[in-house]
Specification:
Blueprint (H helix, E strand, L loop, with lengths): L5 H7 L2 E4 L5 E4 L2 E4 L5 H10 L9 E4 L16 H17 L2 E3 L9 H7 L8 E4 L13 E4 L2 H10 L1 E4 L3 E8 L8 H12 L7 E6 L1 H4 L3 H9 L8 E3 L4 H8 L10 H8 L12 E6 L6 E3 L7 E3 L15 H11 L14 E4 L1 H4 L2 H11 L9 E4 L4 H9 L2 H7 L3 E2 L12
Parallel strand pairs: 3-4, 3-6, 4-5, 6-7, 9-10, 9-12, 10-11, 15-16, 16-17
Antiparallel strand pairs: 1-2, 2-8, 13-14
């Protein structure tokens, strides 16, 4: 039997049909939708008189264009309000489960999918959002799609996709104190550029990756698209299974332990061939900071902004233009630079683990009076955990404004 990568095993197992000299027709296990990219897709179904083929495989939430305060009030922004209302109408019409605004399970789609037991190893997952790659942390093929593709999946539970190339990035060794998963992925992007993963689906591996928690792994996979990759994934292991065992409910699984025994086979064969392989030493990674207008413009927090000649992936003129926009110059250091705004949240870092870590730093301290500081939980469940653990009081005592769950797009009731 031919050796396969983890990506191959999942992809090949979901191919309905291969089109000669064309894309594969790929079956989708889980389809996440939200209020921004779904209205046009539902309109397409309506115009053609087509029903949703597998509504039980679709989960909806309102998260992108919702206000993060005064959620009990009517959304002021007309476009945002219409999008949320249309999502509710469409889900009701087609029998799709919806966690709308103020629902006890509402939250950012890439936060609630894992925490509510909808994201499981071995799945194919899509959503009209680029950061769908987050779910790859569970050993899934997960990627963002466009509105026309959302319509395609609603109508057929399949999508036509060319099979990407395969890359493996290994991070081996022990991380230094204070270095997090966000630093790992920012370091990788700074090394290979925002186009370094273009055309690939990336498997992250190595001892430093294995040592990460599930929430940290989600951050890694979430940002794989920032280096141009179609998505990223990490083989499920005991850390994954322990996370799943602690969830209140696992969707569509009758016997979790039997499923776990099957999921243990979801890993690349030892002699599997990748199209490209990279390896980095965890000891080389420091806390990272970006200084420009794209995530490839990153450096160690104690470093100096590189000279144009040291950034071969960027044209000199565009590089200098980015720095000018930021009010910075090559050779400058950012340590000691004034901070204006602090935000903790998003689909990348809006989970309970992120807020626990931040609370440890600011407990008993007070923010400077000139800094605007916002805390936005990624879901209602995270918000409940923050209340139960006393984190919200810590944040408020430090002068932070604690908002309601959402992505903090400044619309609606802002």
């Amino acid at each position: 039997m031919k050796s396969k990568t983890l990506f191959d095993k999942i992809w090949d197992g979901h191919v309905v049909r291969s089109i000669e000299a064309g894309p594969d027709v790929l079956y989708i296990d889980r389809h996440y939708i939200h209020e921004v990219t779904s209205p046009q897709a539902f309109n397409g179904l309506k115009e053609r008189g087509i029903p949703v083929f597998r509504p039980d495989k679709t989960l909806a939430t309102a998260d992108h264009n919702i206000p993060t305060k005064d959620q009990h009030l009517e959304i002021k922004d007309a476009l945002s309000r219409n999008q949320v209302e249309k999502l509710s109408e469409n889900c009701s019409k087609y029998g799709i489960e919806l966690f709308g605004l103020n629902h006890s399970r509402n939250g950012i789609v890439h936060v609630i999918g894992p925490e509510l037991g909808y994201t499981l190893p071995g799945m194919t997952i899509v959503c009209g959002d680029s950061h769908t790659s987050t779910h790859g942390a569970f050993g899934t093929i997960a990627f963002g799609i466009g509105t026309s593709e959302v319509e395609m999946v609603l109508a057929t539970q399949c999508i036509m996709q060319p099979k990407p190339k395969k890359m493996r990035i290994a991070i081996n060794g022990t991380l230094k104190k204070g270095v997090t998963s966000k630093d790992i992925i920012m370091y990788i992007i700074s090394e290979i550029s925002t186009g370094g993963g273009t055309g690939y689906f990336v498997e992250f591996s190595g001892s430093a990756i294995i040592a990460l928690s599930m929430e940290a792994r989600m951050t890694i996979c979430n940002m794989s698209i920032e280096m141009g990759a179609r998505g990223g994934l990490i083989a499920p292991d005991e850390t994954t299974f322990s996370y799943l065992r602690k969830l209140p409910e696992i969707r569509g699984v009758k016997d979790l332990e039997s499923s776990i025994n099957e999921w243990k086979n979801l890993k690349s064969d030892s002699d599997a061939i990748f199209d490209r392989e990279l390896e980095f030493d965890a000891a080389d990674i420091k806390p990272m900071i970006t200084y420009g207008t794209n995530p490839g413009m990153g450096m160690a927090i104690d470093a100096s902004i590189p000279m144009p000649a040291d950034k071969p992936g960027e044209s000199s003129s565009s590089y200098l233009k980015s720095l000018d926009y930021m009010g910075l110059k090559p050779g400058m250091k950012l340590l000691g630079h004034p901070v204006d705004f602090v935000f903790i949240g998003s689909c990348t870092n809006g989970r309970i683990e992120d807020f626990r870590a931040f609370a440890q730093i600011i407990r008993g301290r007070q923010k400077a009076s000139n800094i605007q500081a916002l805390i936005v939980p990624g879901s209602k469940r995270v918000e409940e955990q923050m209340v139960a653990e006393g984190l919200i009081e810590i944040f408020k005592n430090a002068g932070f404004e604690v908002r309601q769950p959402g992505l903090l797009l400044l619309s609606g009731n802002e």
